[in-house]
Amino acid sequence: MRKTRRQWMPQQRRARRRRQRVKKKRRWRSQRKRRRGRWRQKRRMRNQRRRRKRRVSLLEETRRLMMVRARRNRRRRRSQRVRMTTNRG
Predict the structure, then answer these.
(1) Average pLDDT for residues 49-66, to the nearest whole number?
(2) Backbone Cα Rg of the chain
(3) CA-to-CA distance for 39 and 64, rounded, in angstroms?
(4) What top-level branch of life does the organism fall under (predicted)?
(5) What does pTM read for this prediction?
(6) Average pLDDT, the chain
(7) N or C: which end of the chain has fewer CB within 10 A?
(8) 61, 51 contact by CB (below 8 A)
């Protein structure tokens, strides 16, 4: 629902609807911005520069990236689980 539609809605109905509405998954604006342009190429260049600085092989770098990503996903999954149990009912 766009903002223009919400403006003329009566206050009581808007309050009731706000309680019932399911929380939407947040879409980060920065993520959308990153899709535009040559962000992938830039990221690759940046990674190469970092790798050259520490003389790390590609395999080690990917392994470390996977570890970091897994750790982040684990944290996110745990928070999602807690959220699921809290707003039940």
Answers:
(1) 79
(2) 21
(3) 21
(4) Eukaryota
(5) 0.28
(6) 70
(7) C
(8) yes
Of the candidates 1, 5, 40, 4, which has an alpha carbon nearest to the alpha carbon of residue 21? Answer: 1
**pLDDT (mean) for 27-44:** 67
| Torsion sign across C-alpha atoms 18, 22, 26, 32 | negative
More confident residue, 79 or 3: 79
Placement of tokens 């040559």 in the chain? 38
- Indicate if the alpha-carbon torsion angle 55, 56, 58, 64 is positive or negative: negative
DSSP string, 42-76: HHHHHHHHHHHHHT--HHHHHHHHHHHHHHHHHHH
